[in-house]
Amino acid sequence: MIINRYIQRSIHLGTLGALLLLVSLSLFFTFVRELDNMAQEGYGLLQVLEYIALSTPGKIVEFMPLAVLLGSILSLGALAGNSEIIAMQASGVPLSRMLAAVLQAALVLAFISFLLADWVVPDSETGAGKLKNLGQKNRTALQSSERLWIKDGSRVVHVLALLPNGYARDIEIYQLDKKGKLISTMRAARAVPLESGLELQQVSQSIISPKVVVTRRYERLVYDGSLSRELLQVLMIEPRKMSSPDLHAYLNFLDENRLDSHLERLIFWKKLLAPLTTVIMCLLAFPFVLGSQRQSSGGQRLLTGVLLGLTFVVVERLLTQLGIQFDINPLMVALLPNLLFLLLAILLLIKKQSHRVGIGLFAGGQR
């Protein structure tokens, strides 16, 4: 039990160090890029710093798999370089027990990353996007949580639920006269963006006069105001930064309207499989600190981790593009890179074990 905690602590500290380095570098370049926008009205240094702070959780989730890979290789490599792993094996600790400790450490990191991605990142990215876009665009809009109020000429638009790519649900439109008096209200179940404007669906319109209120219902109605896909889109969180329940609801919305959901479904499966990616990255590091690799320097281990991480990114993006181009099942596209690198980790581990057995038999024959 003590050995398990010791290995897990080493991996967690190594991952934390790698994560701090990667996230800090990414935020630094983001800060430099955002400085160019400070000249715009309503977007000063304070807003830039707030934007950086709100972007931090998303960066942590983005770099977690690579940080786990680098941190595990460096921390386990340090244990191997100090002959601590050999000492553990000499004291009777089997390789399977050390591997179990590595997997337990990976599960903790995967769980933390998933919680951040599902509970923190959606709100933080929404806040960052609102801060940047509304601060720079000088729009008359007020956003609270998922709700949005927009002044569009003589109309006031209330959107209860915003969805990516300019889609929306539960829209209320209040028409005012020149004196600011309410003359009509309109409620729509959903809004679908057109090339110019929006198409409202399942619409109920009430025209208010001094003597009577006339209500009309439409299956579809085109909104002729200036509210457009572009305006809603800049206020929205991207699908890859949505929580799993929200993304699932968005997929249902696309399916109900017979819209293409292939890319969003791929993002959904990638989000659900992200913890598996983290675990595999940690498992992949273990074979590289066994056998002859324990004599490697920290620089060699770091280079190995970087190359493995870059290879995973290239393979994942290549398979994603092929999956989109050839309309391959999104679950298979999201799962395949993980399966390939899991297979690589297993093969490397088997190779290291067989190499150790061969060396043991050879040494026994020499005696």
How would you describe this protein?
The chain is an alpha+beta fold. It has two domains: 2-137 and 257-360, no CATH class; 141-242, Sandwich (lipopolysaccharide transport protein A fold). It contains nine helices and seven strands. The chain has a seven-stranded antiparallel beta sheet, with no helix packed on it. β1 and β2 form a beta hairpin. α6 (244-256) packs antiparallel against α7 (262-285) and α8 packs antiparallel against α9. Residues 137-141 and 357-367 have low confidence and may be disordered.
Short key terms for the protein model shown above:
367 residues, alpha+beta, lipopolysaccharide transport protein A fold, 2 domains, seven-stranded antiparallel beta sheet, 7 strands, elongated, disordered C terminus
Tally of contiguous helical segments? 9
Helical percentage = 55-70%
Beta-strand content estimate: 15-25%
Described by the principal axes of the CA atoms, the overall outline is: elongated
List unreliable stretches of 5+ residues: 137-141, 357-367
**Structural class, from secondary structure content?**
alpha+beta
Map the helices and strands:
Blueprint: H1 2-35, H2 45-81, H3 84-90, H4 95-137, E1 141-144, E2 147-152, E3 155-162, E4 168-176, E5 182-193, E6 198-208, E7 213-223, H5 229-234, H6 244-256, H7 262-285, H8 298-325, H9 330-366
Antiparallel strand pairs: 1-2, 2-3, 3-4, 4-5, 5-6, 6-7
Helix pairs in contact: 1-2, 1-4, 2-4, 2-7, 2-8, 4-7, 6-7, 7-8, 7-9, 8-9
In short:
The protein is of the alpha+beta class and 367 residues long.
